[in-house]
Amino acid sequence: MNIVVLHGQMHKGSTYNITKLFLDKLSTDSTEIKEFFLPADGPTFCVGCFNCFVKGEDKCPHASTVQPIAKAIEESDLVILDSPCYVYGMSGQLKTFLDHMGYRWMPHRPHPKMFGKVGLVISTAAGAGTKQVNKTLKNNLFFWGVPRIYNYGKTVGALSWQTVKPEKKLAIEKEVTKLASKISKHICNTKPGIKTKFMFRIMRLNQKSNDWNPVDKNHWGDNGWLSKSNPW
Ligand SMILES: Cc1cc2nc3c(=O)[nH]c(=O)nc-3n(C[C@H](O)[C@H](O)[C@H](O)COP(=O)(O)O)c2cc1C
User: Fold this and answer.
1) The dihedral of CA 122, 124, 128, 133: what is its sign?
2) Atom 29 (ligand 1) nearest CA
3) pLDDT tens sequence across 142-187
4) Could you tell me which of 56, 119, 200 has the C-alpha nearest to residue 66?
């Protein structure tokens, strides 16, 4: 099993430590984990050139930093995105990477392998905001085609992992154990549900009448998705 983790922060605070708990519970001897810490391992801000959409992802000026992460995502069975809540949203560094994956959204060129993966989004906040963070992270995974997405948000009531109360850490450990056992049943054993299938079919209709972006349309045609084939 392959797990890829995109950390929306560099430091090892509450968010990192909760993700680490999940990794400990989810991995076996044969698990390979690839971790990317943003912004160090990721691209700088999207410049809005549209090259990825209309010329191809290799034409992105930041392709050399985006593509190794994109490949690791494609090769994974479980995709984990984590972020502390910053002013009611995800961290800017994670958003910066996700912007570069716009070309992989279902209206453009979703990767066929995404439709068999499991996703997990994790966020922490001092007081409030994990729902907002996780909602946006889940949206990204959904539009990449990931059919089964779990979320774990925790209001830790602290600015650092060291100052999270021991009883809260115990509760976190219990919750993580329970959710990890649920998640592990579905890794390498997932198919799209009605929502993903419906969205994919709407996108197929869009692509059939696409007269503005041949790069996207060819992707759909090459995969056989303009006729009856599906990626699942
Ligand atoms: C720039 C910034 C903005 C923040 N915004 C919020 C917020 O909107 N809501 C909240 O409850 N906590 C907010 N926090 C606190 C963190 O989300 C919280 O302490 C989190 O658990 C930190 O995770 P970490 O230890 O992984 O860095 C903010 C922290 C920073 C640095």
Assistant:
1) negative
2) 86
3) 999 999 999 999 999 999 999 999 999 999 999 999 999 999 999 9
4) 56
State in Å: Cα 159 to ligand 1 middle. Answer: 7
Q: Please, are residues 139 and 176 in contact by the beta-carbon 8 Å criterion?
A: no
Task: Please state whether the predicted TM-score (pTM) of the whole model is above 0.90.
Answer: yes
Q: Which is nearest to 104 in space by CA: 117, 91, 120? A: 117
**For residues 51 and 19, what is the distance between their CA atoms, to the nearest angstrom?**
33
- Report the length, in residues, of the chain: 232
Tell me which of 3.40.50.1000, 3.40.190.10, 3.40.50.360, 3.50.50.60 is the CATH number of domain 2-191.
3.40.50.360
Distance, CA of 193 to CA of 7 (rounded, Å): 27
Give the mutation target among 21, 159, 163 for probing the ligand 1 site: most ligand atoms within 8 A of CB. Answer: 159
